[in-house]
């Protein structure tokens, strides 16, 4: 009985948080999020997408310096959202293997390895009954096509798709205003944080999509944050974890 009441009030609280987050978006942005989800090119909830949108718009409103980064883009839904919110002159770098998700390591817990086995055995379901994106060929071209279908011209709008492991490809030599990290497992999450956060401007943010979903992401994040205590604030009201830099 107590658990039933707890779940009931948790649902009420989640609904209130969702309403508060969505109320901050324009009708145009709400429609874009709805269209992205309708096209089945993102696993992210409406609330998580709204958090990304609001963060990117706030960065533009404040005229913060720095590039935008996404580590892990799947089918490109969140990349569409970020590219649509940024100014045309702000570079946006999207890092992904653009193929089957790489294997986790011993630093990842049991549930991560079980999930990976489901994927490699061909048993993972896609979005809304579609084929799982990791089983698709030419994923790089498909992401480009998805961006284009929403009016994003990668060359003109300074959107760069970078293929390979983030451990091998992510080299950051300029300030960063915002990063969305959605690479699931311990090693790529830790690598992303170690390379992005030192370049994150004060007022800039990192959103980790998988913090509450996969233990490897949570472990990597907790370990990293212990090394930069006092330099950030946290917000997980949207279901993801948002790290905002408050001082160097």
Q: How would you characterize the overall build of this protein?
A:
This protein is α/β, with parallel strands linked by helices and 248 residues long. It has a single domain, classed as 3-Layer(aba) Sandwich (Rossmann fold). Helix content is 44%, strand content 16%. The protein has helices at 2-22, 27-38, 46-62, 77-85, 110-120, 139-149, 166-169, 186-196, 215-227; strands spanning 67-71, 92-96, 159-163, 176-181, 200-208, 232-235, 241-245. It has a seven-stranded mixed sheet with strand order 3-2-1-4-5-7-6, with helices on both faces. Helix 2 runs antiparallel to helix 4 (77-85). The model has no long low-confidence stretch (mean pLDDT 93).
Protein topology:
Elements (H helix, E strand, L loop, with lengths): L1 H21 L4 H12 L7 H17 L4 E5 L5 H9 L6 E5 L13 H11 L18 H11 L9 E5 L2 H4 L6 E6 L4 H11 L3 E9 L6 H13 L4 E4 L5 E5 L3
> What is the CATH architecture annotation?
3-Layer(aba) Sandwich
In the CATH hierarchy, what is the superfamily? Vaccinia Virus protein VP39
Report the C-alpha radius of gyration, rounded: 18 Å
Strand residues, percent: 15-25%
Strand elements, count? 7
Total number of helical segments? 9
Number of domains: 1
- The overall pLDDT average reads 93
Short description:
The chain is α/β, with parallel strands linked by helices and 248 residues long. Helix content is 44%, strand content 16%. The termini are far apart.
Keywords:
9 helices, 16% strand, single chain, alpha/beta, seven-stranded mixed sheet
